[in-house]
Amino acid sequence: MATATQLEAESGSEAGVWWLDLGSVNAYLADDGGDLVLVDAGTPRNAGDIRDGIRKAGYHVSDVARVLVTHYDVDHVGALSKLGLDAPVYVGRADAEILAGQRKPSARNHKGLLQRAADALVSVPDLPIRPVEDGDQIGGFTAYHTPGHSPGHTAYVAESPSVAFLGDLVREEGGKLETSPWAISYDTGEVARSVRRLSDTAPDFEVAAMGHGTPIMRGGSERLRELAERV
Q: Which residue of 8, 30, 169, 178 pairs with 37 in a disulfide if CB–CB is 3.0 to 4.6 A?
C-alpha cells in the first residue's frame, strides 16, 4: 500500500509536495497555486496505490488538474489509463509520441529495446496528451528538456513549491545524487550533459524529487551542482 508523505520546506513549513512511495518507484503530488498536479504514474499495478495515496493526501482523483510525466517508461506511465483521471498529460515531445502510440521506441538502442519489450503492459491513455518543449511554462512549473535516460526526458522545476521533479535523470543513493546508469539509459553522455545544463540553468530549489530513491528535502539544487561537478 502506498504512503503519502508531505515534504517540508527549509523553514519546517509544509512544502505543498507529497511523496507517493510506490515501492520500486516514486510518484508525487504538488499543490500548484491551488491546482493538484500528479507527477508520474507508476506501473500498471500501482493504480490502486496511487488512488490510495491521493486520498491519504486529502484529495480525490477527480481533483487532479494535470499530470506531468518526466519520461516514457512502464514504471512512470503504466497506471495513467487505469486511474480514472480527467486531466491533460504533459510529456516531452519525443516521449509524447510514444505514449500516444504514434511510434515505437527505437529498436537500435538497448534501452529502446527494453521499452519495446514492456510496451504490451502500457495502454494508451484516453486523455489529452500535450507535448512539452524545453522552456515551456505549465502552471508554476518550467519544463527543462533533459535527454539521455530517454529522448524526451523532461524535468519540471518550480519556485513555489520549491521543488524539482527530476524523474530518472538522477537517482538517490546514500543521500547523494547519481546519474542514470548505462543499462537503463539511451545515452549516458547525454545524461551527464543534461545534469550539467540543468544545474546551470534551473533556479535554486529545496526539494529534489527523483523517480528512484528517497527525495532530498533540503538544498536539492546544491546536491545537483555537486553531481554536475563529478560527471
A: 30
The pTM for the full model equals: 0.96
Give the separation between CA 231 and CA 207, rounded to whole angstroms.
Answer: 21
Question: Domain span at residue 42?
Answer: 3-230
Ranges of the chain whose pLDDT falls below 50: 13
CATH of the domain at 127: 3.60.15.10
List, for residues 91-147, the tens digit of each pLDDT value.
999 999 999 999 999 999 999 999 999 999 999 999 999 999 999 999 999 999 999
- pLDDT value at residue 1: 62
What is the per-residue pLDDT for 169? 98
Cα within 13 Å of Cα(54), Cβ side: 22
